[in-house]
Amino acid sequence: MAGAILVTEKNGVSLSSIDFDYIIEKIRPNFNDSEEDVREEIYSPVDDGGMSFISLVEQCAERFNAFVRAASIAYENEIKEQPFSVRRNSWDELLTALRSDPRYGKS
Question: Which of 19, 10, 91, 5 is nearest to 51 (CA)?
Fold first, then answer.
């Protein structure tokens, strides 16, 4: 099995199930309290539907960037905890896909 983080209709990151579960759960706690609705909407396919994907396709720039910020914090924490993380390639692929999106950095 595998999981995916869909950035756009034509851009996404496919991950092993283990990496997908690990990465999305590392990202989840890094949303601000005021972004609870953003987190719930993005994670609803996993939480409510039992699916192995999350989608940023329909998210506006502000919500998209909330996810990017949470992912960046999670990655920085991961590198501090495990400088030679076996998931570093997965993290790098995800962050590259997120930062190449036209919504990145806009609000």
Answer: 5
Interior angle at CA 72, CA 66 and CA 77, nearest 5: 130
Q: What is the DSSP string of 22-90?
A: HHHHHHGGGS-GGGHHHHHHHHHHHHTT--SEEE-TT--HHHHHHHHHHHHHHHHHHHHH-TT-TTHHH
Length of the chain: 107
9: phi then psi, degrees, rounded to nearest 5: -65, -25
Q: For residue 53, what are its two tokens?
A: 């994907």
pLDDT tens per residue, range 7-22: 999 999 999 999 999 9
Strand partners, 6: 12, 55
Closest CA to 102 of 1, 4, 11: 11
Which structure tokens are listed for 31? 């949303």
pTM of the model: 0.93
